Structure formats: C-alpha cells, structure tokens
Amino acid sequence: MVLLVRNRVKDADRWKRVFDAQAAAGTAAGLTVLHVWRSVDAPDQVYFLLDVEDRERAEAYMASPEAAAVGVEAGALDGEVHFLEAFPD
Q1: N or C end: fewer C-beta atoms under 10 angstroms in the chain?
Q2: Alpha-carbon span 66 to 38, nearest angstrom
Q3: Quick check: helix, strand or coil at residue 47?
Q4: Segment 61-84, tens digit of pLDDT
Q5: 2-9 and 31-38 strand pairing
Q6: Per-residue confidence of the chain (89 residues) as pLDDT tens digits?
Q7: 47 vs 35: CA distance, rounded Å
Q8: 66: part of which helix (H) or strand (E)?
C-alpha cells in the first residue's frame, strides 16, 4: 500500500526543508518516502508518495497534533491524501 499526498503550500522550498527534517517521525510511523514532486504548472502544489507499512499507524500519525503542527510550520494551506493499492493480477 502507498499513500499519495498533495499539498498546496505557501513556499515550496520552505515546505521541502520542513518535510525533510521530519523524515524520522514518518519512519517511526511506518512511512517511507518514495518520491517527492513539485508541479511544473503550479509551483505551490507539492506531491509525495509514501510506502505504508501499516495503514492504522499512518492514519494515527497523520491525525496527531504533532503532524498538524508540522503542516503549519511547513506552510501547508490545504491538501488531500489517498491510500492506494495495486490491482490484483
């Protein structure tokens, strides 16, 4: 399972610095960063793909006050998350 996230941010460079600094917290929640992108047409839009070890742990982390504080510090204005899995063969 993976988690695809989109955030609209005030400043993408600032967001990336904060995102990188929080890697250990994500790892502790069973999340591994696979890719990070910034939209070419809308530079205030960032996307990232995370490998998810356990959905319940990931959701608990994302709902935590600590994660909310990181979003504020990073300048996230809004976003959306999608848990995805491959179609079975």
Answers
A1: C
A2: 24
A3: strand
A4: 999 999 999 999 999 999 999 999
A5: unpaired
A6: 999 999 999 999 999 999 999 988 999 999 999 999 999 999 999 999 999 999 999 999 999 999 999 999 999 999 999 999 999 88
A7: 8
A8: helix 65-74
Q: Which amino acid is at 75?
A: G
Q: Look-up: residue for tokens 């600094």?
A: 21
Structure tokens at 29: 């929640």
Question: What SS3 class is residue 82?
Answer: strand
Query: Using CB atoms within 10 A of its CB, is residue 74 exposed (0-12), middle (13-18) or buried (19+)?
Result: buried
Tokens 């988690």 -> residue:
3
Q: Looking at this protein, which amino acid is placed at residue 64?
A: S
pTM above 0.85, yes or no: yes
